[in-house]
Amino acid sequence: MNTAPDRAAAAPGLPAEGATEVSAEPPSPVPAPTLRRVSAPLRFAARLSRLSAHALRGQRIIRHHFPRLSAAEQRQHIRDWSAQLLRLSGIELHVSGTPLRTPSLVVANHVSWIDIFAINAVQPVRFVSKSEAAQWPLIGPLVRGVGTLFIERERAQDVVRVIHQMAQCLQQGDHVGVFPEGTTGYGHSLLPFHANLFQAACVKEHPAPVQPVLLFYADHRSGRFSRAASYVGDETMVGSLWRMSAAPRLRIEVNYLPPIQANTRRALTQQTRDALAAHLDQRLRDCR
């Protein structure tokens, strides 16, 4: 239930109405893309309503149930809630590989606001997020309630505090998640990685493995790469949801790659990016 935006897609227009011509020939079937454009507003309205209700339900769970639940029970609630959010968004979850059971630094590429929910639907992770996310409507109370670690990106010194928090969480048995690109991309390539937060896995007394996780959005039927879920630039969550509603059904592939260990953050950063880039390149070749 945690969070993190080209973020400006024009909403598909409805087909213009025209006069019907009488003919002895049977009418041609309406193309599928036109049907999708017609039904998109209905799907969008239904999804927005259901997701809003689901967010409010998540807030009630955190406020009234979390205080008396064990850590394992809280994680189960996060997993179930996140999986339901994917279903309400019309996205099917595909998982490959095995998430580590022992504490790890989960490092993923960043494409959409959906990313964290897809990972949490498999194995809940304490994500590092920008501090502004704590104030987002509906989402803010959720990310605060599930133990998100917030970083004030405009303060260069704050990264030291967050690295210390991350290391503590790893030592206490939590999985910690980061998006080292620092922002979202379209999903067909990787942006440069920032190495700072990898330092949390390099504490000499308690080193932690890094598990790369490749997120890949695809058309549900064909398996080909899709940009429909991307959340880039000035995109809004509503605009993103509109585009997903107008697109064919999506699936999110969560690929857990073998863990990586190294003595320095720069070595960890490079090896992790190389592993993700190689897997992404192979997945894109499979689409051709």
Q: Can you walk through the features of this model?
A:
- Helix content is 39%, strand content 13%.
- By secondary structure, the protein is α/β, with parallel strands linked by helices.
- It has one domain: 3-Layer(aba) Sandwich (Glycerol-3-phosphate (1)-acyltransferase).
- The chain has a 7-stranded mixed beta sheet with strand order 1-7-6-2-5-3-4, with helices on both faces.
Descriptive keywords:
single chain, 288 residues, alpha/beta, Glycerol-3-phosphate (1)-acyltransferase, 7-stranded mixed β-sheet, 7 helices, 7 strands, disordered N terminus
For this structure, what is the CATH class?
Alpha Beta
Shape: globular
- What sequence of helices (H) and strands (E) makes up the elements? HHEEHEHEHEEHEH
Low-confidence stretches: 2-35
Number of DSSP helical runs? 7
Largest sheet: 7 strands, mixed
Q: Name the beta content range.
A: 5-15%
Number of domains: 1
Structural class: alpha/beta
CATH architecture verdict:
3-Layer(aba) Sandwich
Share of helical residues: 25-40%
* Lateral strand order in the biggest sheet: 1-7-6-2-5-3-4
- State mean pLDDT (0 to 100 scale): 86
- Measured between the Cα atoms of the first and last residue, the distance is 34 Å
User: How many runs of DSSP E, i.e. beta strands?
Assistant: 7
